[in-house]
Amino acid sequence: MPKNKITDEEALAFHLQPTPGKWEINATVPMTTQRDLSLAYSPGVAVPCEAIAEAPETAYDYTNKGNLVAVISNGTAVLGLGNLGALGSKPVMEGKSVLFKRFADVNSIDIELDTEDPDKFIEAVKLMGPTFGGINLEDIKAPECFIIEQKLKEEMDIPVFHDDQHGTAVICAAGLINALHLSGKKIEDVKIVLNGAGAAGIACIELLKAMGARHENCIVCDTKGVIYQGRTEGMNQWKSAHAISTDLRTLEEAMRGADVFLGVSVKGAVTQEMVASMADNPVIFAMANPDPEITPEEAHEVRVDAIVATGRSDYPNQVNNVLGFPYLFRGALDIHARAINDEMKIACAHALAALAREDVPDEVALAYGKSLSFGRDYIIPTPFDPRLIHRIPPAVAKAGMDTGAARRPIVDMDAYEVGLKSRMDPTASILRGLNARARSAQSRMIFAEGDDPRALRAAVMYQRSGFGKSLVVGRQEDVRAKLEKAGLGDAVRELEVVNAANTPHFDTYKDFLYSRLQRKGFDHKDIHRLVGRDRHVFSSLMLAHGHGDGLVTGATRKSAHVLERINHVFDADADHGVAGVTALLHKGRIVLIGDTLVHEWPDENHLANIAERAAGVARHMGLEPRVAFVSFSTFGYPVSERAEKMHVAPTVLDQRGVDFEYEGEMTVDVALNERAQRYYPFQRLTGPANVLIVPARHSASISVKLMQEMGGATVVGPILSGIDKPIQICSTTSTTNDILNMAVLAACNIG
User: Is 370 a catalytic residue?
Assistant: First the structure.
């Protein structure tokens, strides 16, 4: 599968637009009236201030302290880039804050401290303690990171966690639990070799020893070789703690007969000869970034029995810290923990390991485009497994409660798990799943409007994102000029530019189109003109003949015009059951609306068709459809001729015997509000509707655009459903990202 290619320009643009940086702050309370202001600030704010002064623990009740983590760095060890300084590290810390929010709904603020003096750093962090529920230390060089973390743990009464150390250790431990399970070995018996005695390496070996690994069985190596008792060169107190009595001096010697290799060092540190010398069923965690100590391919060439993990997402068994730190903090914050102790980290590792051994939900397999099951290539859960949020934090919280780290223990663990499930925005996982499916499909995507810079940039992004091949309809020189103007001149040779002048299929296309249109008033000259000059027709013909796998168009012309042109080649009209479905993503909810494109004024049978199409789209997006036929009336009241068809449409579905929930007619608030639904105990929906079928295209358009402009909803679509081939039509106001999203939908064959 092609690697995701990211250019410097794209990375900079991502951080610049739509606003500089990666996060912003939004108020969680209304701030519109004078009364709101009086409650939020003076005089109302005095009341919680006095309450907290009297009982400090109530700060968790009246402020955001209980769900606020500081990501703090001085930038002395930024990723693999070295000492970039405090300011140079800020994009990384912002990114870490975003990950906290995305994966565990933890609010986070990045703080960059402009000092390399450990004492000054410690004092600054300590003084900020009242603000935060936890501290995540990041990208601080060794050995200062050890000193800073230890001192802060001693002097602060909130969790202090250095992710570079302990996050890596936790995920490493989780993977090793399962790898040893598959190998039939026990942690107390195996010989472990660690290469890389920095912060992450030492944390890994310390956690494994806490889990049962024997000191004498653990050999730690650095750039000087084996760390043995009596060595003086390149030593410090943290290395000395792991020195053993041994005659071994080199990594090569240490690897002979080893059961486990852990690498947090550099590319190429391990050779195939070293791997060949290991014990049966060796476990190799080559975690150096960006390139591992040895690749899985190289390891498996000499040892087919090896279980290999890396830090890379393009290999199986990714040791990814995002599996750990968000959920560790989630569990710690929810018990108002004083610290994150070893027991909580071990509980996290065991919970991750146990999750990997369970059946993988279909939605995860669908997202990754392949079947996933516990085994040598799946020993750690994937980062986008939706179960992580409600499986890992409870394990961490329970361990914290059992060890006395909790200020406020959780009484009802079942209710806690339900609450965790509701925290996560389902839209993110759905969009991620679509991207993964598109990447797996590797579709040849036809971008019909090669004269539009937005479409060209989308085509470049599609191909560079690893989704597949971009076929651009346009003139070579025009495409080149527009790409160069957009700063993407290097992309010209990556794209395949197609038009009527260079296709060898021109006559085939003409014959096909003439056979379809000859009885609709089109003669040979008309056909020649359509094929040779109309890019929408030409692109549709490419798709119909298998010269591409999907089509995206519509950014330059009104959708009605584009749909008319597509209809010359495909049966893309209401009579053939085609419908347009638009997805609205807003505040963690997804609602589909149909028909937004094809049916002008559908009757009850058309409405039933639209419902079936929309339900299919919902399932393709990972949703179990709950369809509501909406109107201004609810179950026959008030009586109106205009609402009659919405009343009858469900009975049409009754006759068809469809396999999804549906109900109507009803007002939108009844459809979307579970409390409102309780007034109608006879209604058949088991929860709020996620598919709304509206009376006509104009009402669909009004609904979508109102939600977009006033509600701030993200709009995906309209998604064209019911055509033999994947075709998606953009709007004339589409951005480059909008066009790319439609290409992804086409690649997934949604509809």
Answer: no
